[in-house]
Design brief:
The complex is a heterodimer of chains A (825) and B (185). With 825 residues, chain A is an alpha+beta fold. In chain A, 69% of the residues lie in helices and 10% in strands. Chain A has a seven-stranded antiparallel β-sheet, with helices on both faces. The longest helix of chain A has 153 residues. Chain B has 185 residues and is mainly beta. Chain B has a single domain, classed as CheA-289, Domain 4 (OB fold (Dihydrolipoamide Acetyltransferase, E2P), Beta Barrel). Chain B is 14% helix and 41% strand. In chain B, the strands form two sheets. Chain B has a five-stranded mixed β-sheet. A five-stranded mixed β-sheet of chain B has the order 3-6-7-5-4. Chain B is globular, with a radius of gyration of 18 Å. Classes of the chains: A alpha+beta (825), B mainly beta (185). At the A-B interface, helix 15 and helix 16 of A face helix 1, strand 3 and strand 8 of B.
Chain lengths: 825, 185
């Protein structure tokens, strides 16, 4: 097959494939595989495409198993956790309450124990009043006091009197009895006084003999049975509970005496520890505190750590709370609830509450929290003592904490079990579906021989059966399509043969032979051959026309080329001239700029001249002024000269007078001399004197002559000077006139120079605008030069393109010459 | 003369007044004969010197030009003449407001008149009276030929003092000048 034919074949194939499925044309692997081009499966979306498109969606969806896990697990686990938490909470609260009630119980117990202890002590004293020996001793003691009047005597005197025994009537039996009683009743001491307060007996030696000045005695006498403030002994670290009682006549109920009983706190401590020690938890501590001294009698702690005294736990705030509770218990406080509320937030106390003891409305328990401790207080009735129980709050909160482990463990165990169950269930549910999915995937990959197994629930069974049916139907459809494709291929082969024939016939046209004719033999291709013949005829006509036109074009081009060359030359000449003009314009603009500079300089010089002339005008004015001054000065000098002349005239008058006098004197002297000579020898001396006087007068005359001469000279000179002065005045007047006229001229010069200045300025402005204009002209000229240069270039290009056009035309002519045309036409 | 205060000078002069001291030479009156010529006259013949206004001199008719007129002094009347005219030093008299007059006194011998010794008084008007000069007679030189003839009869001689020539006149000759006594007619 020749290459041209192959090409045409390809083009035809391309047409035929494009028509049915234009989108698929690019996917064709080769032209020879006809079955693939008509494969209907290509028209539907392939499984790969589905998988690619849906993969994102699949990722979002997740498997059925995971879904089941994600939904069911929380539903099971959350209630489990919540139930565990609630259970733990309730249990812990109960444990706390239990701890609290435990503390309360211990407080109540401690208070009751203490009360019991005190009552026991009072019982011991009550025993005394039942003893006749004691009563006898008291009565005799009182009688002794009355008889001796001891109550009237000063205390010091009585003290010294009974210093030995400190007793009214020393009676060892009674003392021994008291000792025995004290020992039996666990008492520290017993003192017995009669009704005036003097010692009658004691269990151990006392410091004082007279007790009626002591507080305990007075209080006891007044109130009867009474528990007083404990006495603390810091040195021995012991405390004694002081109890006072009165002894009265059983018949007359007359006061017989007063007893003081000291009960050691140690004993109380022992009793209380025995009673409640077992019930005390770890950090719990119980103290019996005296509200007045604010000191604890004892401290009972867990595991036998009980001890006497010690520090009050909680310090000042707790002591104040105890005081308050004591007052409430004794009905001293009007409004107990408000007083208790006032404690809240005071000194760090909080969560304060007050309530009555169960079964006894008159006794209260005050509870509050301070720092990290929980306090419960209860007053001991009949005393100023308060039982205080304290426990670390952490202990209360920690109560039941051990349970959390149990709850957590149980919850985890249950959770693990539930998860396992759910996993199993999910796997069972999802297995048939996933199998089915795998089969569907295989079918989608092209394997149509696959059969889905029937398993699982009814839903999955139905799904599998339907799937199998679907696969069978697809298979049959595919077979039908293959048959149709075979038919089409045969048709195509016959068409190809016809086309080959046609191509053989018209092959000459490819080499320019326009005389060839296609035969109209084939049925299918007859129309095509007919059209082809018509095309060849048209082409022939066109070729002839083209030939003629090409020859015309080339001839006209050769004519045009010369004129275009001329045009290009002219254009380049024009550009050169423009450039020359530009140069001269630039020179002109430079010279204009120079003129502008010179003009401005001239303006500056004219300005200078103007200012100079102004200055000289003012100088001239000054000159005029000074000349006028000179004139007045000269006039004054003239006057003075005249006065001088007058004065010299006066001088000459005076001088002539003097001269005359001198002359007369001289004459007189001569005469005197004559007279003296007449007198003879006697007048000789006088004569000489007269002669000397005469000589003197002669000299004065000579001197006056000199003076006269000098004065005459002065007068003459004065005359000369005044004449010169007059001349000078006239000259001054002349020069004043001259200066005036000069000034006027200068003013004219000033005016002129101003005019010149303005003219120069206007010239300078004009030249500046001229320079600008010339610059604009230069710019324009430059643009013009550029334009003409471009024009010359483009005309050159035009020439070149004309030449190429000519070449193309000749080429066209030669090409057209290849066409073989029937010369008959 | 020396220049000093008048007081000191008076003190100097006063004792001299009463202490007669011999001065060398004879006293002569010195005067200006004309503007150029100075002359001396012996004080021996000078009676007084006066400054006389012109109206006090009574002019005399029919008298030579030399004679000014008549004048009086100290109860005596005498003639006054112009000396320079007498000496022919000036051609014609000039009228002046006042005259410097030297009154000469010459004792006349009894040769002419029988009467006893008579005094002849004559006033001579000079240019100006200068003063008194003492002259030692040895210094006097005799008049030489170069003096004019009109002057010569009245000359005694001349002295040169301070390079100045002073004429020494003869008072007697002047008083007895013939022209005064001769009738001009």
């Amino acid at each position: 097959m020749p290459p041209q034919k192959q090409l045409i074949n390809k083009q035809i194939e391309a047409f035929s494939t494009v028509e049915p499925a234009p989108i698929q044309a690019e996917n064709l692997p080769s032209s020879n595989e006809a079955n693939t081009t008509v494969d209907p499966s290509k028209n539907v979306n392939t499984p790969e495409m589905i998988s690619v498109a849906a993969s994102d969606y699949f990722k979002q969806a997740g498997t059925l198993r995971r879904r089941l896990l994600m939904t069911i697990l929380p539903i099971v686990l959350v209630p489990l956790v919540v139930a565990s938490a609630i259970g733990f909470n309730v249990t812990q609260r109960r444990a706390k309450e239990k701890t609290l009630s435990n503390i309360e119980t211990s407080v109540v117990l401690a208070s009751e124990g203490t009360q019991q202890f005190i009552e026991d002590a009072f019982k011991a004293t009550n025993l005394l009043s039942a003893n006749p020996m004691v009563i006898q001793a008291l009565r005799s003691g009182s009688e002794q006091v009355e008889s001796q009047g001891l109550s009237q005597k000063p205390i010091e005197q009585i003290e010294t009197q009974f210093a030995d025994t400190k007793l009214l009537q020393p009676e060892q039996n009674l003392n021994n009895y008291l000792k025995a009683v004290a020992k039996n009743a666990n008492l520290a001491e017993i003192i017995l006084t009669e009704r005036y307060g003097f010692n009658v007996a004691y269990s151990s030696l006392t410091s004082d003999f007279i007790q009626n000045d002591e507080e305990w005695w007075q209080l006891g006498k007044k109130k009867g049975q009474l528990a007083l403030e404990p006495e603390f002994d810091e040195s021995t670290k012991t405390a004694v509970l002081v109890l006072v009682n009165t002894i009265k006549d059983s018949n007359s109920s007359q006061l017989l005496g007063v007893t003081k009983v000291g009960a050691a706190a140690e004993k109380l401590n022992e009793e209380l520890t025995a009673a409640i020690g077992a019930a005390i938890s770890r950090s719990q501590q119980i103290q019996i505190v005296d509200v007045y001294s604010r000191k604890p009698l004892n401290t009972i702690a867990a595991r036998g750590k009980s001890k006497e005294l010690g520090e009050l736990i909680g310090g000042q705030p707790v002591a104040e709370a105890a005081d308050l509770l004591n007052k409430i218990s004794k009905n001293l406080e009007q409004n107990p609830q408000e007083a208790v509320l006032a404690l809240e937030r005071k000194d760090g106390i909080y969560n304060v509450s007050l309530r009555a003891v169960k079964g006894n409305k008159k006794q209260f328990i005050l509870s509050f929290e301070l720092n990290d401790k929980l306090f419960k207080l209860k007053a001991i009735p009949g005393t100023d003592l308060v039982a205080i129980a304290s426990v670390e709050r952490t202990e209360v909160t920690e109560a039941g904490h051990d349970l959390i482990m149990v709850f957590t463990f149980t919850a985890i165990l249950l959770g693990v079990g539930a998860t396992g169950l759910i996993l199993l269930l999910a796997r069972q549910l999802s297995k048939p579906l996933s199998n089915l999915t795998e089969k569907a995937q295989q079918v989608a990959d092209g394997n149509l021989e696959v059969k889905a197994e029937l398993e699982g629930t009814i839903e999955t069974l139905t799904l599998a059966a339907n799937f199998n049916n679907l696969v069978d139907r697809v298979k049959s459809l595919l077979q039908n399509q293959e048959a149709i494709a075979q038919e089409q291929r045969q048709l195509r082969e016959t068409l190809e043969k016809d086309i080959d024939l046609l191509i053989d016939e018209v092959e000459g046209a490819m080499n320019g032979d326009l005389t060839v004719r296609a035969s109209l033999a084939s049925m299918e291709m007859s129309t095509v051959a007919d059209i082809f013949n018509a095309i060849i005829d048209n082409l022939k006509d066109i070729a002839i026309q083209v030939k003629q036109s090409a020859s015309q074009v080339s001839s006209s081009l050769s004519e045009n080329e010369q004129s275009i060359c001329l045009l290009a030359k002219q254009a380049s000449g024009e550009a050169e001239k423009t450039i020359n003009t530009l140069g001269s314009v630039e020179q002109m603009s430079q010279s204009i700029e120079e003129v502008a500079k010179n003009a401005s300089r001239a303006a500056a010089i004219a300005d200078d001249a103007y200012s100079t002339v102004q200055e000289s005008s003012s100088a001239m004015e000054q000159t005029v002024n000074s000349i006028l001054n000179l004139r007045t000065t000269v006039g004054e000098t003239g006057k003075k000269m005249k006065r001088l002349g007058e004065s010299s005239q006066k001088i000459s008058q005076v001088v002539s007078l003097i001269e005359e006098i001198a002359l007369k004197t001289n004459l007189l002297a001569i005469n005197a001399s004559v007279e003296a000579s007449r007198a003879g020898e006697q007048g000789q001396g006088f004569r000489i004197v007269a002669e000397q006087v005469g000589a003197l007068a002669e000299q004065s005359a000579a001197a006056t002559k000199d003076i006269a001469r000098v004065v005459a000279a002065i007068q003459a000179e004065t005359q000369d000077v005044s004449e010169a002065m007059e001349l000078g005045t006239a000259q001054v007047v002349d020069s004043t006139h001259l200066v005036e006229s000069t000034k006027q001229r200068l003013e004219q010069v000033l005016q002129r120079s101003q005019d010149i200045n303005q003219l120069m300025k206007s010239i300078s402005q004009a030249t500046v605008s001229q320079a600008e204009t010339s610059r604009n002209v230069t710019d324009l000229m430059q643009e013009m030069a550029q334009l003409s240069e471009q024009r010359s270039l483009s005309s050159g290009e035009l020439v070149l393109s004309m030449q190429t056009t000519a070449r193309v035309a000749t080429e066209l002519e030669s090409t057209v010459a290849q066409f073989k045309v029937d010369d008959s036409k | 003369m020396l220049t000093s205060t008048p007081g000191s000078r008076l003190q100097e002069l006063l004792p001299e007044m009463f202490q007669p001291t011999e001065l060398p030479g004879q006293p002569y009156l010195r005067f200006q004969l004309t503007a150029d010529i100075k002359a001396l006259l012996s004080m021996e013949h000078v009676r007084e010197s006066l400054l006389v206004p012109a109206r006090q001199i009574t002019p005399l008719p029919n008298m030579p030009e030399t004679v000014i007129g008549l004048m009086s002094s100290r109860e005596r009347v005498f003639c006054a003449i112009e000396l320079d005219l007498l000496f022919g030093l000036r051609p014609s008299p000039v009228y002046s407001r006042q005259y410097h007059i030297v009154v000469l006194r010459v004792s006349q011998s009894s040769s002419q008149q029988s009467s006893s010794e008579q005094e002849l008084l004559l006033g001579i008007a000079v240019n100006s009276i200068l003063g008194i000069t003492r002259l030692i007679s040895e210094n006097l030189q005799l008049p030489r030929e170069d003096f004019s003839s009109s002057l010569k009869p009245y000359l005694q001689g001349y002295v040169v003092e301070k390079k100045e020539k002073l004429l020494v006149l003869d008072a007697r000759a002047i008083t007895t000048a013939s022209i005064l006594y001769n009738d001009p007619t």
